[in-house]
């Protein structure tokens, strides 16, 4: 009998040797992963490439917008120009602005990292404009300041390691001392390629089996990184 994928154990509280936590943005810090795929599916269908929201998640979750645009343009049956990406960004921005919210446990986890003196940053496949918009609407912008990195900053986006390596280098940390929190297979692959530890987060629509290769485990709640079985810390 063929067995399903073996899931990694639940991630433990933050290890004592982690000196930088790198967060993805969409679906980890802010609740946009239910919005974006629905918009992409509708716009792809309008362009002559019928897709469902679930198909969009499987194909594009965690990947840079340039990859999304190239795929849409390649499969469309009507002409698709740069204005498609502009309209997509505007639709996502407006939809999120109507109901901005963070993922559960974000504030608690950031407070915990601040208390422990562990720095953190954002490294997202989204554009700087989109990241800033999401962080501003949810009140998180002041928590991250200038520690925000986008696929726009590097040659190759996720699943290539470039973005995570760039963030670590700018902030002065070695890959082995970084912990990445990701909700997409592409993001997990990027972290592993960067020789970083990575936690798979399934608090959004991503199935745990899709993140089973996360080497630091899988969590359904971000607060599991603060406390495990009633024991806080992780020292």
TrEMBL record:
Q: What is this protein called?
A: HAD family hydrolase
Could you give a GO molecular-function term held by this entry?
hydrolase activity
Which key words are in the record? Answer: Hydrolase
Domain of life where this protein originates:
Bacteria
Q: Which InterPro entries does UniProt cross-reference here?
A: HAD-like_sf, HAD-SF_hydro_IA, HAD_sf, PGP-like_dom2
| Entry-linked Gene3D superfamilies | HAD superfamily/HAD-like, Putative phosphatase, domain 2
Lineage, please?
Bacteria, Bacillati, Actinomycetota, Actinomycetes, Kitasatosporales
